[in-house]
Structures are given as C-alpha cells and as structure tokens.
Design brief:
Elements lengths: L2 H23 L2 H21 L6 H25 L1 H6 L15 H22 L2 H21 L6 H10 L1 H9 L5 H24 L1 H7 L4 H4 L4 H23 L6 H25 L2 H28 L1
C-alpha cells in the first residue's frame, strides 16, 4: 500500500471520527425522541383542525427543531465539561475527553441555534419559532445551571422536554387546544418515572459530578420512588384527555390501550418504590421506553383505529 493511500485512509478515518464526535455532541437519542414528538403532535394537530396532513410543515418543524435541539445539547455539554469529566458515564464524551475543543463546541452550539431559529422563522409560523427558542432557553439557561443546585432541576427539565409538542402543533395549527395541552402534560409526566429510574441507577455518578438529583439528595430513594408512582398514576387520566375532549376522535380502542399501558407503567413504578434496587430501576426504565413510543404511535394512527 502506498504512502498516499495510507494518508488518504487516515484522513477519511479522521473526518469520520470528528463527525461522530460532533454527532455525539447533539445527543442523538434525545434528538430522535424530539423528532417523534414533533411528528406526533403535528399529525394530531392536523387531524384536529380537519386539515389534510401535509409533509412540508412537518419536515420544516423537524429540521429546524433538530438544529435547535442539537444546539441545546451541545451548549449543555459545554457548560458541564468539568462535571462530566468526574462521571464514569460521561467522561468519554467529546468535550471532557478532549476530542473537541471548548471553543469549537461553543461555536457549533451558536451556529446550530441561529440556523435552526432562522430556518423555523422562514418556513413556519412565528409561534413555532418562539416555542423552539423558549425550549432552548429553559434547557440551557435554567435547567443546566440548576442541576448542581436543586433537585427541582428535573421538574424544569421536564418542561423543556415537553415543549416540542407545541412546536409541532404550531407548525400546522394556528392555536393550541385542550389536546395539545394534554399531550404536553403527558410528555411532562412521563419524564419523571423515566428520569427517576436513570437517576437511581447512576446516583453514585451524579454524586461525583455534584448534581443534586433526587436519589443523591435522598439516598434512600424513597422520594424518587414516590415521585415516579405519582407521575405514573397521573399519566393514566391525562393520556385519555385527547379522546375524551372530542368524543369520536379516538374511540374506545384508544382509551383501552392507553389505560392498560398506563396501568402497566404504574405497576412497574410501584414495584420500583417497593424494592428500590437496580433491577426494579432497570425495569422501570425499560417500561418508560416502551410506554412513550406506543402512545405517540397511537396518536398518529388514531384516525384509522377509532
């Protein structure tokens, strides 16, 4: 193999490595979840207003929000470089590991934020852009600084995590209605069982990082378990509101499925509270990851299953 071939191969490998590091900076798993929420809320809004589902507003909302969400994740990691370096689960991230410089990460966060907001502003109603900006501000300027200060950070972060509902809805509808609010509350409440399970599993890591997560503040885990149970219980009636608010929209099949789904998550959350061990926490985490995709899928398919 010639020297030039080896050099070209290494260059390609280097470009791929850098690309993957910047992709990791955007927290792609969170970005995928945000996109699913955008699609579900936009489709739901379109059916609510009796408008045909158009792919272009949904595409614009997804692309613009993807840029803004990627910026928020990058800014979050830029602010938490030192704390991430102390934690086993985050020490190998591009910033604490030194694969991306602090200046480069900040420039990336600024560029994707501006690009995302400008794109949304040019392609969608102003309300969608404002919701996206508010989401970024809450996540970066409120939730992130609050994490080492108060366990209330989860409640604030859950608001930022649920606001993409309004971005997707505003992309196709001029006004929010009770179903949009119910979907927002569903996303908000769902995050507590999900994050309490994660916080319990990584409580030692969070303590090393100096984060005031609930299982760190209360090492017994009881408060985290109670919060998971209460939120899972509240999810059951809240998730039925979209169908109950407009009789004939969802039909009995939707109500049965979401109720059974909610009861299953409540049972797993109750077992987590009763046992408080790694197995019960993993079970709750898996259940939360089953619950949300099924619920969002139902919201997209509901016009055909009623």
């Amino acid at each position: 193999m010639s020297t030039s071939t080896i050099t070209a191969s290494r260059a390609r490998s280097g470009v791929l490595s850098i690309t993957l590091d910047y992709l990791e900076l955007t927290k792609p798993r969170i970005a995928v979840l945000v996109l699913v929420v955008i699609v579900a809320s936009a489709v739901m809004a379109a059916w609510t207003t009796s408008n045909p589902v158009s792919g272009w507003p949904i595409f614009h909302a997804c692309l613009g929000t993807l840029l803004v969400a990627g910026s928020a994740s990058a800014a979050n990691q830029w602010l938490e470089i030192r704390r991430d370096a102390r934690m086993n689960r985050t020490a190998d991230r591009p910033l604490p590991a030194g694969r991306i410089s602090s200046v480069s990460a900040l420039a990336f966060a600024a560029f994707t934020l501006i690009a995302g907001l400008v794109y949304l502003g040019l392609t969608l109603p102003l309300s969608a852009t404002l919701w996206a900006a508010l989401t970024w501000l809450l996540y970066v300027a409120v939730y992130t600084p609050l994490k080492p200060i108060s366990s209330a950070n989860t409640a604030v972060g859950a608001v930022a995590g649920a606001l993409p509902v309004f971005i997707g809805w505003s992309a196709v509808s001029e006004s929010l209605d009770v179903r949009a609010v119910a979907l927002f509350l569903t996303l908000y409440l769902w995050q507590f069982p999900h994050f309490m399970a994660i916080a319990w599993l990584y409580r030692e890591d969070y303590a090393r990082g100096g984060y005031k997560m609930l299982p760190v503040v209360d090492p017994s885990g009881r408060r985290a378990g109670v919060q998971a149970v209460l939120s899972a219980a509240a999810l059951i009636p809240v998730s039925t509101i979209p169908a109950l608010a407009a009789p004939g929209w969802g039909g009995p099949l939707y109500l049965v499925i979401v109720t059974l789904l909610g009861l299953a998550q409540l049972l797993v959350a109750a077992l987590f509270l009763a046992q408080m061990n790694r197995e019960s926490a993993r079970r709750l985490l898996r259940m939360s990851l089953i619950y949300l995709p099924i619920l969002l899928g139902l919201l997209v398919l509901v016009p055909w299953i009623k």
